[in-house]
Design brief:
544 residues; alpha+beta; five-stranded antiparallel sheet; 15 helices; flat
Length: 544
């Protein structure tokens, strides 16, 4: 009882001092003294800013957004798929005389545009050069930061009281330097028919958060303005908190040891069990490679003459299928024997008997007829004219995930996606209801299209002309004429995919997956340009 009381007292003191330390944080804000437009840092074409000095003037009162703003920086004639130059706001006047260290930095700026514009890079600068690692669009996703379209202005904030913009620390001298500031780039959407965007920025404010001076600087300055090595400023209250934390941990360990004398033995037993399990796994893998008999709770591989038998015991707790197979799936090695003109399905130096995994390394003609991945659309298993993987994945996602934020952009589990892929290649359909992560099913759908040996729609000269067309109806008719000669399976597969993507885009106010964002995801997968994909997704109901 006494030990518990001491532990509770230590926790109380620790939290109380933490609140006191938090209340001592310092805050100072400032606007810039200068602005400029620069193309530094990118080799691609960029549109320049006009009236850049106007970012130094706040011609409205905070809390009164309805007042007119007459001075602002602007990019004129900003078309589709464009990137602006970097507009730099610098020469801030921060009073850091009472600051001991910098705890966080927040940037806030007012912006608007005539049509869809997004943030592209937001980064801290020093001497006109970005401070390494501080680009917010690498730290957090900027694809959803749409600028306000219309006469009204909106305010965007990045950073905060404890945010050091991806660095290990930023020095007072860096922030006090007159060349310190922030650089902002924006990009336009890839939509064809929305006209100029003309982004505008009114005022760029920076707020610095820090703790008061209590002890001297212990750190070294690096050339990029950040702290190097273990250099920090250590206020006395922070040292006290660290000591109390160590004491609290020691007290907790003492209490656990007194209550559980066998604690360390139990921990040792757990460690030994893990090592034994890892060793058993290594032995099984070595046995499998040498063609010996292998058995686990969820898989049996047994070499029987020239045959390999694979079975999935339904009683296993790790089974991922909704019903037991009627009988083991058997492949005869003699049917897939190699010749002098065909690639060998065997791994040199390993077993002379082919395994199911080896078939993934050979041509389509040597693969089992159940394969769904990495084969032509005319050879894959289908439901009607649509590959079974595509139909089942999309149908499942349509019923559960149309409002899922970041669907198709967020990655799933590589191991789970690989497991479901193997199931399809074995002639089975995995039970998605036993897979709680929607992103795994979405990842499986993307993997199917990524592994197609030939994409269902190639970039022809006719499609390339669409990027310069201004008439919406003519663009739709051209797309229809390009799709008409496609094989029936290709057309049906594309139609199923793009109608589904259009449904997602119609819910972009919830799932954040606009046609532009979906095009970013599928452009490398389908080997099509982003403007073309954006158009096909937005107009899928008219094209197909």
């Amino acid at each position: 009882g006494r030990m518990q009381s001491r532990l509770q007292l230590a926790v109380f003191v620790f939290l109380s001092l933490g609140l006191v330390a938090h209340s001592q944080n310092l805050v100072v804000s400032s606007g810039p003294g200068k602005g400029r437009s620069t193309a530094q840092g990118l080799t691609i074409d960029q549109d320049s800013w006009d009236d850049v000095e106007d970012v130094t003037t706040r011609d409205y009162q905070p809390g009164q957004p309805g007042q007119a703003r007459n001075t602002y920086a602007i990019v004129n004639n900003f078309g589709a798929s464009q990137i602006s130059e970097r507009i730099d706001a610098y020469q801030y006047t921060f009073d850091l005389s009472t600051f001991g260290s910098i705890a966080g930095i927040q940037v806030e700026y007012s912006r608007r545009s005539q049509n869809t514009v997004f943030d592209y890079t937001i980064e801290l600068i020093l001497n006109g050069i970005p401070i390494p690692g501080t680009n917010r669009c690498n730290i957090t996703d900027c694809s959803g930061t749409t600028w306000n379209a219309g006469p009204a202005w909106s305010s965007q904030k990045y950073g905060g009281p404890t945010d050091l913009w991806g660095t290990s620390g930023i020095l007072k001298a860096t922030v006090a330097d007159p060349t310190f500031g922030v650089g902002i780039r924006c990009r336009s959407s890839a939509a064809f028919f929305v006209g100029d965007r003309d982004p505008e920025v009114d005022y760029v404010n920076i707020t610095i958060y820090g703790s008061p001076v209590t002890e001297g600087e212990l750190g070294l300055t690096s050339s990029d303005g950040t702290k190097s090595g273990s250099s920090v400023v250590v206020p006395a209250v922070v040292g006290t908190l660290v000591v109390l934390l160590v004491i609290g941990i020691l007290i907790a360990i003492i209490v656990l040891v007194k209550r559980r004398p066998d604690l360390f033995q139990r921990l040792k037993n757990i460690s030994d069990a893990r090592e034994a399990k890892a060793e058993e796994k290594r032995k099984k893998e070595a046995s499998a490679e040498s063609g010996m008999y292998v058995q686990s709770s969820s898989l049996k591989l047994q070499v029987i003459g020239d045959e390999e038998t694979k079975s999935e015991p339904y009683s296993s707790k790790t089974s991922d299928y909704s019903a037991p197979p009627a009988k083991p799936v058997t492949y005869n090695a003699a049917l897939h024997a190699t010749t002098s003109t065909s690639p060998s399905p065997f791994i040199p130096g390993k077993s002379s008997t082919p395994t199911l995994a080896n078939y993934a390394k050979v041509g389509k003609s040597d693969r089992p007829p159940t394969f769904c991945f990495g084969v032509d659309l005319d050879s894959v298993r289908k439901i009607g004219k649509i590959p079974v993987v595509v139909e089942e994945c999309i149908a499942w996602l349509e019923s559960r995930a149309l409002n899922e934020e970041g669907l198709l952009r967020l990655a799933g589990s590589t191991s789970e996606v690989s497991r479901m892929k193997d199931a399809y290649n074995e002639g089975k359909s995995p039970d998605f209801s036993k897979n709680n992560d929607i992103n795994n099913v979405a990842g499986l759908l993307k993997l199917f299209f990524r592994e197609l040996p030939q994409k269902p729609l190639l970039m022809t000269q006719g499609l390339k002309k669409m990027t310069s067309m201004t008439d919406h109806d003519q663009a739709v008719e051209l797309m229809r004429s390009e799709l008409q000669p496609l094989p029936a399976t290709n057309f049906a597969t594309l139609k199923r995919l793009f109608i589904f993507l259009q449904q997602l885009a119609m819910n972009s106010h919830v799932n954040k997956m606009s046609p532009e964002n979906l095009a970013i995801v599928f452009s490398p997968t389908l080997n099509l340009s982003m403007p073309l994909l954006t158009f096909m997704i937005a107009c899928a109901d008219k094209i197909f």
